[in-house]
Specification:
It comes from Novosphingobium mangrovi. This is MarR family transcriptional regulator. The chain is mainly alpha-helical. It has one domain: Arc Repressor Mutant, subunit A, CATH 1.10.10.10. It is built from 8 helices and 2 strands; from the N terminus they run αααααββααα. It has a two-stranded antiparallel sheet with strand order 1-2. The relative contact order is 0.14.
Length: 177
């Protein structure tokens, strides 16, 4: 970053946050490489895992902002790979419900276990209280940015409660890869 930009504390903070992305990819990269799935395949799988009830292809398409045809192609690939299963939908004859298979559940458990092992090992070098403090600070930053964007009338792409599924550690770690 140039001196003028770097001297702005807000932009310097953003730079550090973006650099953290690379660190997280280095730390957790093996979790994503193990699955061999494309980013869109992962996003569709996470949408199924994170949905409160089994979703349909059109619902996932709307949630992710992709055309139904694109999501349908990805779902077909995941069904062929025995990662997703289609179930009858009592509310719609053609829009099948999507559920993760036992294979997908096992992948999720393995990724979460490996992520927890890695995180616990890192906490031997960086204290849990310090992580908790940073988590609170980052949450406050996110909430302030969301409020600012909303006040300015700018489109809000995601919030802590909506947008791409970020509720599970598995989703977060796989999105990094």
């Amino acid at each position: 970053m140039s001196g003028n930009i770097r001297s702005n504390v807000f932009l310097a903070m953003i730079d550090e946050i973006l650099r953290l992305q690379n660190c997280f990819e280095d730390l957790f990269g093996e979790l994503s490489e193990a699955s061999g799935m494309s980013t869109l395949q992962k996003l569709v799988l996470f949408a199924v895992f994170e949905a409160p009830v089994p979703p349909t292809v059109p619902q996932i398409g709307r949630d992710l902002g992709h055309p139904r045809q694109v999501i349908q192609r990805i779902v077909n690939e995941l069904v062929d790979a025995d990662i997703l299963e289609k179930m009858p939908n009592p509310h719609h004859k053609r829009a099948m419900l999507l559920v993760p298979t036992d294979k997908a559940q096992a992948m999720k458990r393995q990724a979460e276990d490996r992520a927890l092992e890695t995180a616990e090992a890192f906490l031997g070098e960086f204290s849990a209280p310090r992580c908790a403090g940073l988590t609170g600070e980052l949450k406050a930053l996110r909430e302030a940015l969301e409020a600012y964007v909303k006040r300015r009338g700018l489109p809000l792409r995601s919030t802590g409660d909506a947008g791409l599924p970020a509720g599970s550690t598995f989703a977060l770690l796989e999105r990094l890869g």
